[in-house]
Write a structure and sequence with these properties.
The structure is a single chain. By secondary structure, the chain is an alpha/beta fold. The chain has seven helices and eleven strands. The radius of gyration is 17 Å and the shape is globular.
C-alpha cells in the first residue's frame, strides 16, 4: 500500500533534530500498524507540486502553523486536490490543519477561534460512532495545539467527537461505515515531549502564561494515540481495498 504524506508545516530545526520532520513522524506511526506501507512525501509547504490523487492509495494531510483561510497558492491547490480525491474515491486523512482544510475544501468554514489557544491534553466526547470506530468508546484524550477551529462543518461530514472547547473535533465524510475521509483536530502523532518542545521553542511567546501552565501540568495524562493510529490504518486499508475492488 502506498500512502501519500502531504507536508503542510515545518518542524523547527531544534525539534527536528530530536523527533524528525512531520513525514518521518507519520511514517513511524503508520508503520506500527501497516509495516509494509510505502510512502510518497510531498512537501507542498516548501514548494513541491501536487501530482494526481491516484499517485497514492490514500493521502494524509499534516498539521501546520498556517491558517486554511490564507490565500496562498499551495493552500488553494490543496483544497482543489482534496475535492478531486473525494470525487475519485481516494481516501483522505486530515490531522489538525488537515482536519480544517478538508472541511473548508468541502464547503465548511474555519476561523481563528474566540476561545483562544487549545493546548495540551484535551478530552473529547464521541457521538454516533460507526462500528469500525467503536474502540474510541464514549470519549478519548488527545494532544491539542491549535487556535483555529471549524465553525461550520460541511454538509457531507458527520461529527463523531466534540468538546466544549472544540465542537467539531473529529469527523467522517460520506457513508460513516465506508467513509471518503476521516479527520481529527488533535494530534495522534505527537508525544508529551514533542508538545513540551513546541511550548519551549515557540508557544511560550504567543500563548497566555496561564494556559501554558495548565497545558504543561496536564501532559502527564494518558492519551489515546494508539487507538487513533489503529483507526487511521484501518480506514486507509479498507478504503484502498474498496477502491481497488470497484476498479476491477
Amino acid at each position: 500500500m502506498r500512502i501519500g504524506i502531504l507536508e503542510t508545516g515545518n518542524v523547527s530545526d531544534a525539534l527536528k533534530a530530536r523527533f524528525g520532520d512531520y513525514p518521518s513522524i507519520f511514517h513511524a506511526l503508520i508503520h506500527t500498524r501497516l509495516p509494509d506501507a510505502e510512502f510518497i512525501d510531498v512537501s507542498i509547504v516548501n514548494g513541491e507540486k501536487l501530482g494526481r490523487p491516484d499517485d497514492a492509495d490514500g493521502w494524509l494531510i499534516t498539521g501546520s502553523r498556517h491558517g486554511v483561510y490564507e490565500d496562498l497558492d499551495w493552500i488553494n491547490a490543496l483544497k482543489a486536490f482534496v475535492r478531486d480525491c473525494v470525487a475519485q474515491n481516494v481516501p483522505l486523512v486530515g490531522i489538525c490543519f488537515g482536519h480544517q482544510l478538508i472541511a473548508e475544501a468541502m464547503g465548511g468554514k474555519v476561523e481563528k477561534s474566540e476561545r483562544g489557544w487549545g493546548l495540551g491534553v484535551h478530552e473529547y466526547q464521541t457521538h454516533n460512532l460507526p462500528g469500525w470506530m467503536a474502540d474510541l468508546k464514549s470519549s478519548f484524550k488527545g494532544y491539542a495545539v491549535h487556535q483555529d477551529q471549524i465553525v461550520t462543518p460541511p454538509s457531507s461530514a458527520q461529527i463523531i467527537a466534540s468538546s466544549e472547547f472544540c465542537p467539531y473535533a473529529a469527523m467522517v465524510y460520506g457513508n460513516p461505515d465506508a467513509p471518503d475521509a476521516i479527520t481529527v483536530q488533535s494530534h495522534p502523532e505527537m508525544t508529551a515531549e514533542f508538545v513540551q518542545g513546541l511550548i519551549d521553542t515557540r508557544l511560550n511567546a504567543i500563548v497566555p502564561a496561564e494556559r501554558v501552565a495548565l497545558a504543561e501540568a496536564g501532559l502527564v495524562q494518558q492519551v489515546q494515540n494508539d487507538i487513533w493510529t489503529a483507526l487511521i490504518a484501518r480506514f486507509l486499508e479498507a478504503a484502498s481495498k474498496r477502491r481497488a475492488s470497484a476498479a476491477a
